[in-house]
């Protein structure tokens, strides 16, 4: 087992851990540990909500979740020799559960508190608990379903530079300003409430808490990309923006569907990541990187039979035609899938939860055939223990 | 070889073929042939432009293409016993080239005539010709690239009912009305110019030409979905809207990337489709179908190594933050890929053409992490004969 | 379509074709055509028996097959510039059926005339006819089975040198001499009866007919390897033994299981091969080649669910223990599979025919754990339209 | 983490563990624990040699290994309700390393002490140590190689009945009697020396030690099958021969090539297995089982590019022709691969060690084309960090 650089005690709040991580992005959050290029080490992570969701049958904790506390991240890790403009090469050697916590959760957030991709259709909080048994999972809340996990960190990336952070804050504030009272909001702007900023204290804490970006969206540095294929064996190339790179991570998922449509949508869990890091000096300019790039690993669960649902960019309520809108098209594809599986005895909520958590493929199939985008969602039939093909 | 129900002569215009197909959607276009459920038959198709693009090195034909003529479709095929509300089950038994026409083309449409996904970046017409050699293709216009095809009909579907057609026309007209002078237009409304409507003549032709929908967008019936995975061996479940189903098809692609981003983006070719058809009586209600669903076949080219590029929904020119806009996020992912491969000696146009035509995977990875959608484009490294990994 | 270098008329015997191929191996059989390195061309082939087996329900033709006539090969093709010690690089660009002959056959040879892997269990001639529909096949003789083909030439290779031929003849004669009256024989020695030797005539024909090796076994040059994975898109590296390489091929299979256990075991058919050839000068010494090596192509049918049967090297009749005998172990694995599927309503003969023709994987799993070899046969469950899992 | 039913302390000999397992097969070895059908539990295992091989650079420990001590097995586990004739369904939920022992070894046994598949070519003891880093491994003894593991128990199965054991002992004794002084021996007969039999003591120990079968060969119950595909997520169906089933297991491999050709050939390690067990009452007769059958899991490492070597059944020293001998053919295929990779700077021993431990596919490609069997070994090129293709 590699050396554990960041250890968590699942029985304690994030703020009371021996090493305190962070739940905001800012270049001035101090590193908690340093490593050399070529090192292998383990990072443990709490689930993204800091333990707010429990292994029971009530969705009340999902309904009442305090989202000002997310995402609790382990790090930053300082990589010796890393400088702005370098590429930090991260090999995800392994992703796993922590002993005695072999379960995860998927939630539908209430429309008033977080919402989700289909919040107009499913506005009420709901929850599924998943039992993890080795490579497999099943949920007592969604019968006759079992599948292998594709474990990955939902969130991983290097700290932004001061300039990049300013750019994030400006563009997100501009967006919110277009409709400041919207529920759910258009973006989550910096919010000192419940900000955790590692070892920062006093005035420095106050300053950084005012400036630090929320962790919800993916951005240029990667961050909360929620890409299910960043699984075991992946190699990721991250742009470095600050000295030491300051790599942080969390939001581990046992599995997820493309889009993570329920928002709290993957199978969220605590867990560990085993990493190997290296540097490509000056790599950002050499390879023209704006965002991270990556090579998926060789042990993703593979399926040979899929059932695929199409969706087009026409609103399901009004019938309004949208222009090449992949968001609407993917929503329609998801809704089409939900409608189909309801014919096999599932509730809409169960399939919504399933599409967020099982390894479904969400594709932009056609994005130029004006005015309709065509998106597809491909569902491996082997995740069902029932026959779900038309006959 | 199965019986050829629809034969084409590639040396004659579409309108002069023995059987004349159509290039618009309308329930009243007469069927050209009928089959029983359980039948196996072959349909030949011209390329979608009716031969406007030639196997040479000049993009002038792409620049000057007359889009009022597209897509030339083979059909409609009447399926005996098919009634509205049935599912038409179509097995794509094979897709192939026609003798002596073993090549295809990928075009970038000029901004003024069609445009494409990245038209702001690549406003000028461009063309790549692909030589097809068995399962493989390569282009003299994009060096050191070779890959196996994933042949499929870009366009296939049953005729709409009168009601469905009216719905299409209304919603698309409403969209165009929001910005009627836009170039390219927001949608292509019914246009009698160059309409081909099978054997219709006289007043009936005139009426239908006024009403018939253009074939560009995918819609509820499927149509121009441009889904690369509708390849050999797929089984598709189509909703039936009119008696006899009236199945039509065309726009055969030797290969395509998800999104078909150059618009004329796949490797466009003439070719044939071998089909088996069957019916599920009353299947639309039984399975809750709004759009077609399908099962991909078992012989898609498979790759184990991909390089994946991420994109987020921030405008590349203005830096403006969009709200969960998968269209923008996928555009950024594509642009990131283009920038990367330019470092390996390709021009931007070459990679744009390649992303439209090679079997790249375009995914909606995250669609809930406000305000950024995260899309990814995964490119199999084996399509390059150069080493294209970072080092 | 590439130029056809070797055309066959399926209505004429092999000996009456415009170009006459051969059914023996000898360096002095004259080439029928020549090509340059870099060329792409098509070779048509009759089925390996020269049309002795018909598309009907009687196995009498299999029982009475004249094996002195096999395998009818198309070639030799002279590759300009090829010299002994070079590697001939052959790309199998495509493999397909000929128009109007879209069917194939699998036979169990009678013990007295050919036999097969399980001839002690199934001594009587039997036959299955397969209908080919695009990428798929099914047989009216084996219900509820459908699968995608993995088309390949069972037999392909360059002509042996005089020295290599002499070596083959000697070692095979030595083997036969150990039990000259065995039925079936231990090997098929040179036999002038029905020898076809291209354009050779008179005394030269007589001499070569006496010396030429039979085509049944695979040997150092490749030849009748019956490797199902030499399918579309493969690249093969052949040792060259004579000037011009003299490449020949035939015995096309629409599909086959590892081991081709029924001997006439694949789905045997007439068809065509599209090839690209090139040379690596001096490659045999450079890469230490004794036999051909190859890279399989990317479009083999892929399955994610297999049912796997184990076998060990203990004789099924006597209970005798063999020493690390993979032949016996694989036989037991096949017999175990047959016994299993008989519980699902199939006859033993049906499954024997199926294991010879469907894309089953035959593996040497353990070959060192004295005294038992362990072989496995892995059967994709998706080839059955029945549920064949234990429950 | 599931309950650990069998715990090992890697710092203590097998015989001094809290629970003592066994290294022989006999129905009368007492169970160490019992479980109900439906249970999930963890079993820890020492490496098969009980720690005789160390993480250093000297092959002396491999040369001097005491094979009378192998294989040290964890169990037997009593499954409540299991009776002879039932099928024991075992799900391999997970396979992993133990903390602080993340390494494994591959050995070439000396000809005088164990030998191996190529012992005539490589008669001297040799060793490679593998470092395990998450899903990957690399060895300081074989440069420029890295691959993902396919972890599995080399040995797992239920206790034989008294009758089955007698049958094993008789047939193996008969074989040894044909050449009793052979080195290595034709089989390992019962040998009380170093026999470990769980809690048995006194006269009962003495009786069982005289009768108990060695664990080396795979047999009807499964046992030491060394099937690399019995990896994470597999479901195995075992015949039950005695009341309680008495399931035992060990010989965990981090990875292995088909055939495990170096004998000590996989990447041998200590580790754990997470299992779920269930019963199919009367399943042996219902499904006609003679040996175990299994369904591989969905997370095996997958590769799309292989280099494949062929071998035929002709002796490499004498040139003697063997009759359909898959053992000889596979040996030739392996030797061909070794010869090839020596051209890339490796020693023969390095490649021999690699073929035993990397996930290479060993296939019986043709087993009927008299007199030559054709076997192939397919090597994923991605395991090399060098380019190993011909050019």
TrEMBL record, chains A, B, C, D:
Gene3D superfamilies: Acetamidase/Formamidase-like domains. Pfam families: FmdA_AmdA (PF03069). GO terms for molecular function: hydrolase activity, acting on carbon-nitrogen (but not peptide) bonds, in linear amides. This is Formamidase.
């Amino acid at each position: 087992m590699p050396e554990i650089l960041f250890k968590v005690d699942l029985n304690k709040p994030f703020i009371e851990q021996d090493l305190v991580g962070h739940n905001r992005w800012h270049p001035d959050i101090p590193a908690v540990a340093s490593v050399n290029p070529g090192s292998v080490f383990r990072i443990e992570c709490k689930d993204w909500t800091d333990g707010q969701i429990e292994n029971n049958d009530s969705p009340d904790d999902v309904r009442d979740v305090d989202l000002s506390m997310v995402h609790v991240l382990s790090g930053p890790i300082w990589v010796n020799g890393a400088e702005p403009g370098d590429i930090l090469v991260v090999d995800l050697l392994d992703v796993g559960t922590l002993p005695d916590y072999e379960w995860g959760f998927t939630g539908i957030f209430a429309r008033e508190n977080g919402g989700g991709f289909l919040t107009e259709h499913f506005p009420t909080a709901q929850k599924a608990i998943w039992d993890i048994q080795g490579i497999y999972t099943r949920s007592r809340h969604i019968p006759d379903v079992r599948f292998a996990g594709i474990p990955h960190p939902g969130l991983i990336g290097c700290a932004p530079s001061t300039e990049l952070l300013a750019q994030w804050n400006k563009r997100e504030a501009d967006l919110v300003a277009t409709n400041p009272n919207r529920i759910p909001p258009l973006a989550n702007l910096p919010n000192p409430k419940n900000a955790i900023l590692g070892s920062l204290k006093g005035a420095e804490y106050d300053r950084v808490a005012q400036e630090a970006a929320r962790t919800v969206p993916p951005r240029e540095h990667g961050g909360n990309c929620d890409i299910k294929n960043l699984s075991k064996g992946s190699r990721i190339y991250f742009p470095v923006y600050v000295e030491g790179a300051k790599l942080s991570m969390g939001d581990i998922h046992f599995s997820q569907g493309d889009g993570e449509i329920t928002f709290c949508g993957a199978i969220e869990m605590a867990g560990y990541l085993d990493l190997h890091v290296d540097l490509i000096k000056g790599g950002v300019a050499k390879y023209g990187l704006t965002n991270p790039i990556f090579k998926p690993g060789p042990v993703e669960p593979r399926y040979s039979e899929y059932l695929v649902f199409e969706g087009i960019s026409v609103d399901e309520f009004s019938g309004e035609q949208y222009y090449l809108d992949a968001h609407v098209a993917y929503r329609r594809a998801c809704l089409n899938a939900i409608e189909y599986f309801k014919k096999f005895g599932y509730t809409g909520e169960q399939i919504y939860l399933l599409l967020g958590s099982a390894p479904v493929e969400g594709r932009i199939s056609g994005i130029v055939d004006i005015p309709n985008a065509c998106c597809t969602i491909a569902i491996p039939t082997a995740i069902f223990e029932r026959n779900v093909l038309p006959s």
